[in-house]
Amino acid sequence: MNRFIFSIALFSLLLFCMQPTGKCAETESTPEVAAGASAEKPSVDKIVAKANHIAYYQGRDGRADVEMTIIDQDGKERSRQFTILRRDVEVEDDSPVQAGDQKFYVYFKRPADWNKTVFMVHKKVDGDDDRWLYLPGLDLVKRIAASDKRTSFVGSHFLYEDVSGRNPNEDRHELSSETEDAYVLKNTPKNPETVEFSYYLMYVHKKTFLPYYLEYYNSKGEKYRVGRAVSTETIDGYLTVTKGEMEDLNTGGKTVVTYSKVKYNTDLPDDIFTERYLRNPPRKELR
Amino acid sequence: MNKLVRFSVNNPKVITVMMVIITIILALLAALPTLLPESFPRLKPAMIDTDPENMLPEDEPVRVFHQEMKKTFALWDMIVVGVVNNHHPEGVFNVATLQKIHALASYAEELTWADPDNPEHKSGVIAVDMLAPSTVDNIEPGAIGEVKFEWLMKSPPATPEEALAVRDKAKRIPMFNGTLVSDGDKDATGQTAAPKAIAIYIPLTDKHLSYKVASKLQERIADFGIGDEEFHITGLPVAEDTFGVEMFKQMALSAPLAMLIIFLLMWFFFRKFSLIISPMIVAVVCVIQTMGLLVTTGHTIHIMSSMIPIFIMPIAVLDAIHILSEFFDRYQESKDKRETILKVMDTLFTPMLYTSLTTAVGFASLALTPIPPVQVFGLFIAFGVMMAWLWTVTFIPASIMFIRQKSLDNFGLTEHNQEVESHSLLSRLLAATGRLTFQHAKLIMLLAVLVALAAIYGISKININDNPVKWFEPNHSIRIADKELNKHFAGTYMAYLTLASAAGDETVPATLASLEKAAEAKAKTLAEDGYEGVTAVFANLLTQAKKLAPEAVFRAQFLKLLETYAQEQAEAKTTPEVQIDAWYEAATFVSSEKQSIQTFKDPGVLNWIAGLQQHLLTLQSRDQRQLVGKSSSLADIVRTVYRELRGGSQEYYIIPDNRQGVAQTLMQYQNSHRPQDLWHFVEKPDETADQPGYRKISLWIQLKSGDNQDMQEVIDGVDAYIAGNPPTSPLTHNWFGLTYINVIWQDKMVQGMLGAFLGSFLVVFLIMMLLFRSALWGLLSMVPLLVTIGAIYGLIGFIGKDYDMPVAVLSSLSLGLAIDYAIHFLARSRELRATQGEWQATVGPMFGEPARAITRNVLVIGVGFLPLLACKCGTCIAMGVTAIILIGINIYQFMEAGITTLSLISIIGVVMLFLLCCLASRRSSCRQETHNR
């Protein structure tokens, strides 16, 4: 899952941006400044790599308790609670552009009748991710096909791909504009038939490289979906998004996620992320 | 009387100017705000309403419930586009057709407009809830051990194999089979074959947009050019909306046509333009005044009220025809138009007043129905009828005063004309009838009794039924689409059955009791699973529960407090390490207690629903048709997803055996592209209101027919099933959906009409007693009416025509009109008898002028309703036909024309009347009268 969680988490910090939405995004661009700074201006590839890293790869491992609240257009709310454990496969390299394979263990606690449900991902930079599902009520372990990652994540407005991270290699990136604080990347899918958007804009904070605002556009060029970091904190030295949301402009519904008990570099054992642990969750690590 | 008529005759100009001014004022009051709304904000503009749902008041419980449930389950009225291809062996599952379907669905998704009432929102098609191959998910087992969700047809197929793959995938999903892809196709040997057709379901924000959306879709379909496939657009909202639109179009055609025909008919009778123009003016004036008043008083122009003009027009000329007819016959006696008209008016004033009153009462009685548009229809026609009377007794005499004496020289029953007239077919027939009825009174009366008995039998066979789609002619595109799609698919008529948990939200003490019980079992299981400190933790938890219980008012509040406590204990630094996991489990346990009232996660209840659905498929109409093509419910979703989780084998098409299994299956369903679909079938939780959800479900039932009767059979079938197979947990059930609403309003209409009819019958009877100053004569005048109306309904029963809304409305019309003839007939007979002294002597003169006037009237009415036949939609035709039958019967009441059942039926009326008269004359009241003479 989690790429999103961590990604949002990494979206981190732009305190001034924490106000509602997209205010940063609308900040007027200042081309002169950009031009003046061109000597130091990073390449598009570098921005993408740094943003990807800060969104998904801070620390060797991490954990967070997540509360996800789905707020429909009719005002009705329902929530899910789960704990995410994350472990990077390449632990040696904690450089700011490191982006290797990762393992996620998502353990559901609420609603109570989902308790002990587990979703596990082995995310691969090259090739399809491996995904497992354990449903305790059916005593069933399933592999889940990676065929379409753009389906809803447990009924929320987040998609599986938001959660486990869209591979940067799947899009062509260009710097479409700059604001005072952000590089605005336009990401166009290389295989448009596999996604429902025609492109999306990602606002990456210039100083921290935190991607803090996402806008998805449909084939008619209309913005229909917006993701944003709502608040951030520095935890264990890492800039971490503690609250984020995804809004569907077509229906008016949105999902808010808040992160608590976030910890990095807790030396999670690698064997937690195996099928054996689906039925026997690591209670201590999940507390 | 004299004052009013004399005033009119003496001041014809004043009367004319008054009439014109009143008409212009009412016309302007309606026209100005409609044409220039800004300039006249306080006046009410004309508002059009084509929604048959408005047959019920907006606050009618069934409509309120319908709206509430639509909101609860996020359901919308839908247009259905069915695509069939009868040329390709695989039906629509070929590359070319699927490409068109894909293109049409994409086009439909974009049919949205800014909502005029709420500019931030869009109105039109609700793309996210559309059901089309390109917008729904296929769920299937992937590679071994996998399950996957994928768009069923994200892009159009490129090869025939891909096209067939779409078909095969959809057929596996019970929610799609029979709905999205057809399930009624047969191969050459009559065996069920693979699907050949596809239906797209297009939900709309407002069903009134269905005509607009349907028209847009037609345009797009036309762009495809000529191909092998047929596109059928249907769905109840389209039918209703199209009906309304067509109705107005037809009315705009029918009303002028009625005018023309009445004009020609009068020309045929009187051949004097200057004379017949005045009844036409009265008719137009009455229509303008009535419609002007309707609009000005803020009433909408509904399907019903759009028919007011065509009802008023023929009725409005009736009295004028009596006057002209009498004037025509008498003018040559004195050759003084003033003297003649005063004499004519003297004779006719009372019968005309009473006939108008009874007609008005007949229509006004519709106000007793609980159906607002019918009330408006009845009251305004009653108003129009009284206006017609007023202007007839004032303007007609006035207009005669404008005619130059000289131009009347050759007018009317001159000696020459009298000669001709007495030999005319009409006169001869009438005279013969007169003789016949008198001579064979007993025989005819016997026949009348027989026909009356037959009528009673026929009435007992009347089939009360209605179906808005059948308001269209059989060859209307909507009827064709309806037939074609119901052949291929499970059914295009939607009804929804809601089941709600009747096991109440428990009180706090009851919750505490069941919590204690459940805690014991849970603690045991946890201890077995190796959790430490469970006993101490659960003992602590229950102590806390007892402490918190008195503080809480609601169940949810109590459990929330307790869960928070357990959670805090789990995270408290002081909690011993060995108890931490047990405390987390305790918190989860309390949370699951919160969910225990989610009735529709209970496998027992879901299995019961599956059983009910199975039973629905076995329901049959009286003529052995299968009524329910298919039903879809939460149980289908659970079973389908569970089957795919288990690898797709049909043996796993079952409900998991525990609540967690059900919940986790549904969690998987929400991992699709359309997680919101779940909430069309089950009530959504709402944490802001402490609503756990899953306490109501909606069963989507596709019926093959929209007949009220068929819907009623389904309702009864469900009631019987529930009574015989009580659910494992107490449930209440209720219906909604347009097909169901139709049943309700039709029920109300039939009962209301009956009440209205009986009410007006009573009032007319009272008026008759007043008119004749005799209860016996009053009763007598009602006899032909009873026999006639009985015969009409008997006939409807015999020929098997459904008793529906149009027929019901006509009962009031028939009451109002049929009594007219009786009044004129009796009033004139009594008058004549007074001069002739003998009933026998009365017959001859009676079947002269008075019968001629009555017959002319009957023709005008009958022919006046003919334009309804020009309508495209069946209702109008039904109305027209029934009206003509009715008029026909009334005609036959007074003349014999060939040996038909009808003539027999009607003759009876007259004969009975005569016979009763004979009998009556020997009785005291009549005899007394005779003695007085």
Explain what this protein looks like in three dimensions.
The complex is a heterodimer of chains A (287) and B (933). Chain A is 16% helix and 40% strand. By secondary structure, chain A is α+β, with helices and mostly antiparallel strands. A 13-stranded antiparallel β-sheet of chain A has the order 6-5-4-3-2-1-13-12-11-10-9-8-7, with helices on one face. In chain A, a hairpin with a 5-residue loop joins strand 10 and strand 11. With 933 residues, chain B is of the alpha+beta class. Helix content of chain B is 62%, strand content 8%. Chain B is built from 31 helices and 13 strands. In chain B, a hairpin with a 4-residue loop joins strand 5 and strand 6. In chain B, helix 9 runs antiparallel to helix 28, helix 10 packs antiparallel against helix 11 and helix 29 packs across helix 30. The longest helix of chain B has 35 residues. Chains A and B meet through strand 2 and strand 6 of A and strand 6, helix 19 and helix 22 of B.
How many strands in all of chain B? 13
Widest β-sheet, arrangement of strands of chain B:
11-12-10-13
Mean pLDDT of chain B: 80
Radius of gyration over C-alpha positions of chain A, nearest whole angstrom? 18 Å
Q: Work out the helix count of chain A.
A: 7
State Rg of chain B: 36 Å
**Helix segment count of chain B?**
31
In terms of structural class, how would the helical and strand content of chain A be classed? alpha+beta
> Shape of chain B from CA axes?
elongated
